[in-house]
Design a protein that fits this description.
The chain is mainly α. The protein has one domain (2-159). 82% of the residues lie in helices and 0% in strands. It contains 7 helices and no strands. The protein has helices at residues 2-9, 12-32, 37-48, 59-64, 66-103, 112-146, 151-170. Helix 3 (37-48) crosses helix 5 (66-103) and helix 3 (37-48) crosses helix 6 (112-146).
């Protein structure tokens, strides 16, 4: 009975169904990567929530879905850009606030709206940093797998070639 489960789990039908699912994910990711900056951020957040377990993708899956790697690269670049933008704003504000602190002799900062913007930028920078790290990890894993030769697949191909060679020798 257990052998039957193994055969079903790795049957051609099962593999075909899995490939259809991976292709659907690739199509979705490709469309999401073409959207506006705000939607790209949402795409990055969705990926970071680990709704899709990319660790289960095989090297073969990754090679068969190059648009998926491209989509992840696009969102990764967007998140990197956004992080750098907010990080740069924080650096500028640090300088300004340091000057103001000196001017005011460590009193309350004059422009509360500016300070509020600083706090918001600080929050966004941290959030984009978290998102870009998560998406970068997914991208690195799938990118590496897309370039990895699947040993099991190669062994299967070798066995098939041996079988074909043996059949031609018999004829």
């Amino acid at each position: 009975m257990e052998d039957e489960a193994v055969e079903i789990m790795y049957s051609e039908e099962s593999e075909a169904s899995q490939l259809k699912l991976v292709k659907a994910i690739e199509s979705w990711a490709s469309k999401e990567s073409q959207r506006s900056e705000l939607e790209l951020t949402g795409f990055g957040a969705a990926l970071s929530n680990n709704l899709i377990n990319f660790e289960k993708f095989t090297a073969k899956d990754c090679r068969q879905c190059p648009k998926l790697i491209g989509a992840l690269s696009a969102v990764k670049q967007h998140l990197d850009k956004q992080f750098k933008k907010f990080d740069s704003e924080i650096d500028k504000m640090h300088i300004k606030f340091a000057q103001e602190m000196e001017e005011l002799d460590l009193k309350i900062i004059r422009d509360r709206k500016e300070f509020k913007r600083y706090l918001i930028s600080l929050i966004y920078a941290e959030e984009y940093n978290r998102l870009r790290h998560n998406v970068n990890n997914i991208y690195q894993g799938l990118s590496a797998k897309s370039q990895y030769e699947d040993i099991k697949e190669m062994e299967t191909e070798i066995e098939e070639l041996k079988r074909q060679l043996a059949q031609t020798k018999l004829k």
